Amino acid sequence: MNLVQVFFYVMAFITLASAVYVAATKNLVRSIFMFFITLFALAGLYVLALADFVAITQIVIYVGGILVLILFAFMLSGKESLNYISGRESKFISINKIAGLFLSALFLVVLVNIIVKVDPNNLDWIKRSVSEKNDIQPDTNMTENIGINLMTQYLLPFEAISVLLMIALVGAAHISRKEKNA
Amino acid sequence: MIVSAVLFCVGLYMIVTKQNAIQVLIGIELMLNAAILNLVAFGRYDRFANGGQMFALFAIVLAAATTAVALAIILNVYKKYKTIDPGQIDQLKD
Q1: Test mutation, B8, B19, B33, B89, chain A, max A CBs within 10 A
Q2: B11: which DSSP letter?
């Protein structure tokens, strides 16, 4: 067991533990900040999968953008949501939670079963890519390659997503605007 | 991959059980992240075309756009109904 594997298990444990805590806690503020930790640990996992650019993007967009948006919405929706949550604290396990837990446990069993059956380390195309030296080594510079690919092979999706992002932001601003002078 | 499966199921559990729209949104984000983790993990074996990592980037940007729109909708709904419990919002028109 080398250092990379140790790091992988530590990061995976942090991710899963904080995700479970996010789901289990009653306190919305705590759940948002644990979500923050989940995202950081996920970025660590991306680095361990040798995708450093994706990890940086994850930190910038999720932690910088989405989390601030969620906090903002939480503060705007104010005290009422907190009171609402604390009012329901009496019953920990109610009927609908049992149903949800059952559903997600069932999903987990199915997914793990599929993963074990597929046996992802012995897939055909992965073996081929390893034998053709097509897999990423720790010393390759991926960011340059990603930039070149983004401007050549993936140019159309790139433009499409930029237009989509602009539409989404304009739409969000329009929806959340005050209605008085509309 | 098992990490990602567990993450997906936690997100699903959150969506089904939570009574707060913001927490449902966090659940959706967890599920998206599980999917992105799989993409990145397999993207390791594609050095020249970068299919996995590129798709992961697009997925992250899409998630950001989704969240922005969803939060705007949540704020509007809060202004109208004074609650963010999805179970209590029962009409579409004004």
Answers
A1: B33
A2: H
Report how many domains make up chain A: 1
Tell me the mean pLDDT per 10 residues along chain B, length 94: 57 57 74 78 68 78 82 76 62 56
Phi and psi for A119 in degrees, rounded to 5?
60, 70
Residue A68 belongs to what domain range? Answer: 1-90
Provide the whole-model pTM: 0.75
* Chain B residues closer than 8 Å to A76 by CB: 75, 78
CATH number for the domain spanning B25: value is: 1.10.287.3510
Looking up residue A24, the CATH number of its domain turns out to be 1.20.120.1200
pLDDT tens-digit series, residues A43-73: 888 887 777 788 888 888 888 888 888 787 7
Residues of B in contact with A145 (CB under 8 A): 47-48, 50
Whether residue B94 lies inside any domain: the answer is: no
- Are B20 and A81 contacting, i.e. CB atoms less than 8 angstroms apart? yes
CB contact under 8 A, B68 and A169: yes
Is ipTM strictly over 0.95? no
